[in-house]
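Recall the central idea of this unit: under ordinary conditions, the amino acid sequence of a chain determines the structure it adopts. In this exercise we apply that idea directly, starting from the sequence alone.
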Amino acid sequence: MSHFFLVCLVLFFTLEKNFAIETTWKESHHHHVQTSSLLPSSSCSSSTKGPKRKSTLDVVHKHGPCSHLNKNGKANYVQTHSDILKHDKERINYIHSKLLSSSSNNNNKVEIELDSSSSSANLPAKSGDLIGSGNYYVVLGLGTPKKDLSLIFDTGSDLTWTQCQPCAGSCYKQVDEIFDPSKSTSYSNITCTSPDCSQHVSATGTNPSCSTPTESCIYEVKYGDGSFSIGYLSRERLTVTPTDTIDSFLFGCGQDNEGLFNGGAGLLGLGRDPISFIQQTSQKYHNTFSYCLPSTSSEIGHLTFGAATDNEDVKYTPLSTISRSSSFYGLDIEGISVGGTKLPIASSVFTTSGAIIDSGTVITHLPPTVYVSLRDSFRKGMANYPPPSAIGDFDTCYDLFSGTNKTVIIPEISFFFAGGVTVELPILGIIYVEQKQFCLAFAANDHDSDITIFGNVQQKTLEVVYDIGGGRIGFGSNGCK
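Accordingly, the structure predicted from this sequence is:
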């Protein structure tokens, strides 16, 4: 009898130990977070890491209390779920249009002229909507004397442009004073016969045209929703920081800009094309830059050029080239895990579609089969909470903010990249919060063959390092502070 009791006792402790191990394993692959910490503050909180570095700009969310572009007058304004998905869809259309530019059509054209004698350019009719969300901007100086301009920074675009006086066509409303090249001593137009005039073709997908009386080169850049910028290809002094200036920087001086980035003054192109900011400054910044996108709209991140990161947590995955476009930064995704369990995804799914990292797309867009697997696993990890509901095109949303502040337990999600790199997403890289609800911050592409896009929500608080010369992209935790 004593022997039987001893066996039972041993069995009991073994089961208890296994249960404890299992419980610890589950808890180690979940985020325990206070609901109040998921909401943005009504006041601005700056980064403690970025400003200590050389060649660093503040990254600001244009809808938060740190932004001077916030036209809504609400310190903690947050875009609605429906706005996010609508703008993201336009952004994805833009990316697909760049990847499939050879098969694009020119239906619904309008004619635009910069002056009465310039050659006309056929462009798609504008939709009146924003292209992408364009959530994050930096401030740079242009001209001599310099004028500060708030430019949306975009790793998926190449040409840097801003609105310019006299706005011969049309200029949308912006908060900053519109740049007037006639008041700068360092401004010059590019002539139609200059080799620079044809340099922007690969970046914009359009051929240059010419202004007859001045022989000035005219650029055209079109986006997926029909928005566009058209103007003079020019050179000007660009002031990055008080100690860093770039002379003869090639940029677009926009005379007709419609449907784009309302509030900001234009766009800073950080793509891979020779006309991009990164390539034009390669001798100064060595084809290297990094950024950290803040966790909420009430915090400030950073965009740093040239300096090697001091984040010891950064791990690098090889940078891949997308065969359909040389502008985008490609990633090789090898798998995804939810709650510590790797999803049963065929290895051919990501290799077939390819993948890019993009600062202008908000929500990560996955092949439909991958998204369904991720969503179903996430729902299982949230089984202790009320069943998920749908908000617009988000199909997995929870109302967990009712009542007093409480702790919620959310499954971890990790991405596995080539080179043995595992990136554990921060909590606000998994969910998108809107007031009293949060949704799983992923979406499905239309087809498994559509390119996978690693969006900016998933990049929040990570140190993302683009070492283009070294052919690699790095990810590190706690990049903003």
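The chain is about 15% helix and 35% strand.
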